Structures are given as structure tokens and as C-alpha cells.
# Entry
Amino acid sequence: MKTLQNKVAIVTGASRGIGAEIAQTLAHAGVKVIVNYVKDQQAASRVCTEITDAGGACLAVKADVSQTAAVRRLFDETFNHFGKIDILVNNAGILTFKKIAEISDEEFDRIIDINLKSVFYMLREAATRLSDNGRIINISSTVTRLMLPKYGAYAATKGAVEQLTHIFAKEMGERGVTVNAVLPGPVNTELFRAEKTEEDIKRMAGLAALGRIGESEDVARVVLFLASQESGWISGQNIGVNGGII
# Structure
């Protein structure tokens, strides 16, 4: 999309999976991309290398976005390197695949920190530092619309992200900034496959109208649209990208 040439995006949790695919898809459309990561520098560098080898612009930045100081530094480094921020994709997240009765206090605190607090902190910083007419896309999950055992804590954090999306869209609208959430269904990633059997995966694929689990590019293409000028009349929406699972 030519309208995205020279735009600048931060994609959190972009060293692998859906985040990496989003970063590469935006870069192919002309966006200069910050690939945020926490632990896997090698994977983040690999994503950036693929982007730059294809003629794009990319910088990998280590920052734990569940920490306010790290969020401020991530924005600072983006401004120092690219001079502005037009697009924010809040993708960083973890999954605790356990029944509610089995989740420890420490596990619950961690999923709240990474899945919810990180989004809140990034939105708060973006409120004053994102460019006018910018785009914010939060990655939630279709599990908020289902009743799936072992997804309780995860669904709770993603449901909260959807509510932040609604309210922040109202708060940012006067500056022309759109705020939307994308709700992937089951997607063929390391995060999704963790602690699941092939039978579990086959069963979930069978729930979709299209009879398959998704791929990262299925989600990234929707994010690309929401990041573009073509989506300028869409804001405050939670958009299911799930092959018709619900």
C-alpha cells in the first residue's frame, strides 16, 4: 500500500510468530519497522535482516514492555532512529494453558503483566507520542468469544485489552488516530501449539467454517489493512480473524 511509504511502526513481541509476520508485512508495504523483543536477540535480528535484505528499514530494540521505563525507552529509541511513530501494534503476549484452579499467583501476575499491563503502558505512551492520524492495532484473541477450558486467565487479559481498545479509540479520535483490536482464532504458531496434542489442534481446526487453523499471514494482512489509510473510518472495533470459528 503506497500510502504506507515512510510510515514508522513499533511492533511489540515481533521476534517470532504473528509479530514477526506483521513486522515483515508492514515493511514490504514501505513501513520502517521497530522489531521489539525481550529475550531472543538472534530471532529479532533475523527478522530485521530479512526486512533489510528486501530493501526495507528495520531496527531491533530490546525492551520489556511490561515495565514503564522500558516502554519509554522503546519510544525514545524509535524517535532517535526514525524521528516519529505512526503505527503501533501491541502484539506481545504469553499463554498460560491451565484450568483456573491450577494457576498460581505468580503465573497469574505474569500473564497480567505481559498481556495487559504492557498494552496499557504502550497506549499511555502513545497518547502523546503517536503521530496525528496514526494507527493502533491491539492483538487480542477469539477466545474472548468462546468458552474454552484452560484459557481463563488468557481470555481475561485479552478481554481487558478489547475494552481498552474501545475507550482509547474515543480518547484518540480527536487527533484522527484509529484504535482497533484484531482477534485471531487458532493460528499455527509456537505459542498456539505449546502444550497441545495434534488431536487438540485438529479439533480446534474443525470448529472453523473454513476447516483449518490460521497462518500468521492471515492475521498480518488484516493488520496491514488497519494500518493503512483505507481503514480510516474504522475505529474502536474488535475484529475476528478466525476462519469463521464463531
User: Anything to note?
Assistant: The two ends are 30 Å apart (CA to CA).
